[in-house]
Recover the amino acids of this structure.
């Protein structure tokens, strides 16, 4: 940046000469430039550049210009004004150049620091380069300022070194020494460079944080069963489990896993991870296991060996005192079934039927046995201290006995009772074992089908029309199996005839027949149209038209009356149809 040093006169003499001097560190003045008034103009001359690049310049008012201010420009500049009879006067300007240093850099000690040493060890070096004036470096642990002296001691101190660069800027290097402790294993360290700004202001540049790698002995050891274990320490047979061992020393020591058998250690594995995996653990692996931390720097009073008891829970398949199917007779006084389980810890047994709890314990008692007792019974073994370890065993109870029959009575459609022609649907349901067969005294019964959710019931239905005969005899359904048979008769009582409806039907039939015969007669006459004597009554030797007919005697009988006269030819009384109308 450019800096201009101004020298302003408080009075206006007729003639004056203004000179600029640079005072070096020894106090010697060196004339840099001069300005002389010539009329209303100022004539300026630069006399000595003092090796500066770019050189000094004068502005139109006699001010001294320093292009691209540099650290080397930090001097005292003296302005001397000579005004003849008015006298000589001077003023001094102190120029200070501020430069913000580069990013603060920290170089931590990447080695392993032992907490067992009794002297301060090098922690890190902090660098702040190319600043002006020289910056100041401070150190922090977990964000808190470390108040360490500059004097060497066994607990902690820091050293500093300042270097002036070729550019004139200054660099500062600070090194921190501490006697670390175990508490520093998780600590975060960093340094900060503080620099000055114009008008008394301050700036700060922090380094990135870093952590230490420490060596400290084991003080505590933990040994436990990892997942999946219960809160009581049980593990399920067949699971893969982990035995975990952890010491608090650094770096991580070796871990030796062993099993105690007959008071003797049987070595299982040695590793740095502190992890022993048992795949598909079984009951024979129950016992005492141990872990030993191999840390030779640990204090004598530290317990480096830990043991634990591994308890493997198991549950064998259940045994029932009966097979998968168990048959008993209806109304048996007492029936018992036993369920036995073997496991560790001791399992709890529970009986259920259709998900309904029946009781706890190994023995199931049924008394008395009814058809409702039939179904599937489940024995379940579980352990409250070992979740998800359980077994079930079931059997089906079959109740042998004569069928039980249930009929659904149908009410008549009319309030007065049944009427001939009414349609009715009869239903019979039965249960028993073996499954009963349902039959009807009338044809048309549907095959028996299981009743949905009916606990062994089967059902058959019959649809028919009510008649007077059914009213007298009724309709019977029968259920039978090898143990017996049982029946039910549906009674209809008095069945009313269809009287009014019958008269109407007969009249309709008569009218229909009469109309049919009339149509036939008309059709017949139309066929004979044009024949002489068509549709006339005629007999052999009948008188001419218009003469009265004579009565017959003897064997002659009166001619048949009616719409048609039967006869095979032209003769009457033969009983057939003739050609005459």
């Amino acid at each position: 940046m450019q800096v201009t040093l101004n020298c302003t006169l408080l009075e206006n003499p007729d003639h004056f000469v203004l000179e600029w001097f640079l005072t070096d560190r020894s106090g010697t003045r060196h004339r840099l430039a001069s300005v002389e008034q010539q009329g209303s103009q100022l004539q300026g001359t630069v006399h000595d550049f003092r090796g500066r690049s770019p050189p000094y310049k004068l502005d139109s008012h006699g001010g001294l210009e320093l292009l691209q201010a540099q650290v080397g420009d930090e001097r005292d500049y003296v302005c001397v004004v000579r005004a003849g009879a008015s006298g000589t006067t001077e003023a001094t300007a102190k120029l200070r150049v501020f430069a913000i240093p580069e990013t603060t850099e920290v170089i931590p000690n990447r080695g392993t620091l032992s907490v067992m040493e009794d002297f301060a060890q090098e922690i890190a070096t902090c660098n702040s380069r190319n600043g002006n004036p020289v910056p100041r470096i401070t150190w922090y642990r977990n964000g808190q300022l470390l108040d360490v002296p500059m004097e060497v001691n066994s607990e902690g101190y820091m050293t500093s070194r300042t270097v002036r660069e070729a550019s004139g800027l200054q660099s500062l290097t600070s090194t921190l020494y501490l006697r670390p402790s175990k508490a520093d294993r998780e600590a975060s360290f960093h340094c900060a460079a503080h620099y000055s700004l114009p008008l008394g202001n301050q700036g700060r540049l922090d380094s990135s944080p870093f952590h230490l790698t420490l060596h400290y002995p084991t003080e505590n050891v933990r040994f436990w069963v990892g997942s999946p274990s219960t809160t009581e320490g049980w593990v399920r047979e067949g699971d893969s489990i982990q035995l975990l061992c952890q010491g608090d020393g650094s770096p991580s020591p070796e871990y030796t896993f062993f099993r105690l058998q007959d008071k003797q250690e049987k070595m299982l594995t040695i590793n740095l991870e502190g992890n022993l995996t048992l795949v598909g653990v079984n009951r024979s692996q129950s016992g005492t296991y141990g872990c030993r931390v191999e840390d030779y720097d640990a204090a004598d009073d530290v317990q480096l060996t830990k043991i634990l008891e591994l308890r493997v829970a198991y549950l064998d398949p259940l045994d029932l005192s009966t097979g998968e199917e168990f048959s008993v007779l209806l109304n048996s006084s007492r029936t018992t079934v036993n369920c036995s389980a073997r496991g560790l810890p001791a399992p709890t047994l529970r009986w259920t039927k259709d998900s309904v709890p029946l009781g706890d314990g190994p023995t199931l008692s049924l008394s008395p046995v009814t058809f409702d007792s039939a179904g599937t019974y489940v024995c379940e073994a579980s352990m409250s201290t070992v979740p998800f370890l359980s077994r079930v065993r079931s059997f089906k109870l079959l109740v042998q006995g004569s069928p039980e029959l249930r009929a659904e009575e149908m009410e008549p459609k009319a309030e007065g009772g049944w009427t001939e022609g009414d349609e009715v649907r009869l239903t019979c349901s039965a249960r028993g074992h073996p499954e009963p067969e349902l039959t009807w005294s009338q044809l048309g019964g549907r095959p028996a089908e299981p009743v949905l959710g009916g606990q062994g019931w089967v059902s058959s239905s019959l649809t028919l029309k009510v008649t007077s005969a059914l009213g007298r005899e009724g309709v019977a359904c029968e259920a039978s199996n090898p143990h017996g048979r049982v029946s039910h008769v549906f009674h209809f009582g008095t069945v009313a005839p269809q009287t009014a409806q019958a008269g109407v039907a007969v009249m309709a039939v008569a009218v229909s027949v009469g109309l049919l015969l009339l149509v036939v007669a008309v059709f017949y006459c139309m066929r004979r149209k044009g024949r002489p004597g068509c549709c006339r009554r005629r007999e052999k030797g009948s008188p001419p038209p218009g003469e009265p007919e004579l009565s017959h005697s003897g064997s002659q009988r009166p001619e048949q009356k009616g719409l048609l006269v039967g006869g095979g030819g032209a003769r009457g009384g033969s009983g057939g149809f003739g050609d005459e109308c």
